Each structure stands twice: as C-alpha cells, then as structure tokens.
Amino acid sequence: MKENNTRNSKSKKMMLWAGMISMTMTFAGLTSAYVVSSQxxxxxxxxxxxxxxxxxxxxxxxxxFTFWISKKMLKKGEIQKTNLMLFSTxxxxxxxxxxxxxxxxxxxxxxxxxTGPESSISTSFIYVLVMLHLAHLISGIIVxxxxxxxxxxxxYTMYKTLGFDLAEMFWHFLGFLWxxxxxxxxxxY
Length: 189
What we know:
Elements: H1 2-37, H2 51-76, H3 79-109, H4 121-152, H5 162-187
C-alpha cells in the first residue's frame, strides 16, 4: 500500500511539473516575441507603468509567504493556524487580482487599449502577458479554495499532505512567474 501511495505521489508531482514547464515555455515564447517585436518601427512604449503592478508584486510575495507558513503549521499539526494562513493567502490573491485589474484601468486612462486605433503592439503584449498570468492565477485560486476546503474538513494531517504540497508548489510557481514577468516588463520598456 505504501509503495502504491509513493508511486501515486510521484506521478502527480511529475504531472504538475509537466504543466509548470509547459506554462514556462508559453511565457518564454511570449517574452521572446516581445523582445523581437520591440525592434519594429511602430513599437511604442511611452506610457507610465502602473504603480498598482508594483503593489500587486508585494502582495503576491506575501501570499507565497502565508502559504509557506500554512504548510509549516500543518506539519506541526496546528490546523487552525493552517486554515488561517490559507485564508490569508486567498485574501491576498483576491487583492492581487483587484490591484492588477485597477492597474489595467491606469493603462486605459493613459489612452492605451488592447485593440483598436488607440492600441499599440507594445501595450498589447503587456495586456497578453499580464492577463495570461491572471488566468493562471485564477486556476491557482481554485486550487487554493479546494485546499482550504479540504483543510477545513480535516483531510490533511501532518503525514497526509500530497494535495497541499502540490498546491503550494503551484502557488509558489505562480508567484515566481509573476516576479519574472514584472521584472521583464520593467527592464524591457
């Protein structure tokens, strides 16, 4: 039975790694296209980068920290603290999304749109990169809600953490992905 559980755990972790690698390749392709496209004569990137994207970066770093603390609490058997930290992570994720959407409002208020006559290839790339990350973050929030629900229903213990481990790994990946995208956009516009 233990051997079967170990094999199950390894296969689920490998599937998660495969998914994260494919997401990484997607964003690598998009950022490469951004760099190549920046050589175009119609490349225009004169807008002010939204300050709310800076704040959202701080929020996502804190959300990784609260998820990490929740795992530490689970390993200690402190389920109430685990749930509190998971809930805090969820709240921070929602704040991140709100800040990102309001950051897009700042871009729109500067007169830059995703499509149409007021759009440019450069700002369209920013929309695609950030919105694609938000789509992945929404899937991360769904995973986080499932983990929180399972934790509230005492499905995790100090010794039974597979779903929790997978969710934590994915959440940290999403945080690192945003840090990469944010840094890339800051240094390439």
